[in-house]
Write a structure and sequence with these properties.
There is one protein chain. The protein folds into 2 domains: about 60 residues, no CATH class; about 80 residues, Glutaredoxin. The chain has 7 helices and 4 strands. Strands 2-1-3-4 form a 4-stranded mixed beta sheet, covered by helices on one side. Helix 1 packs across helix 3.
Length: about 170
Amino acid sequence: MPEKTVGQPRPSIPEPPAADVASHLDALAVSPALNLIGVLQGVQDRFGYLPASALRGISRRMRIPLSRIYGVVSFYAQFYTEPHGRHTVRCCRGTACHVKGAGRVLDAVERELGVGEGETTPDLAFYLETVACLGTCFLAPAMMIDNLYFGRLTPQRVQSILRSYRQREP
């Protein structure tokens, strides 16, 4: 993977083709009679995030002002308006993890993935976030990838874990 400076802006990822968005909205039978949250979930399941073009289409088809849709999207943490990776890496910043080296773990994750907190890798494989606590203090320092916990981490172990996920990627 090419080196990337953490925090450096990357080119925006293009929106899905308009025909794909329209086709998916047709398949969901989007209309004013449907539940907005269910429609948003269906669109995000298909595209991995909520493209602006899909939100505009939902607004037209459901006759809901776009501002109200963005209000709902920004209220719920489950919705993303930018692509997120197929795998979510959560690094713990809790007290126990901090004391046991969470900073070195986060640095190792950022180096290995080439992204900073709140960023997605260009190949859309990983999204990195930090959390206040994973509730696994006995495993400190810890991180999660999707729903799996990894504890007693060292920078070398982080590198090995992330590379094993990379090898499984298509």
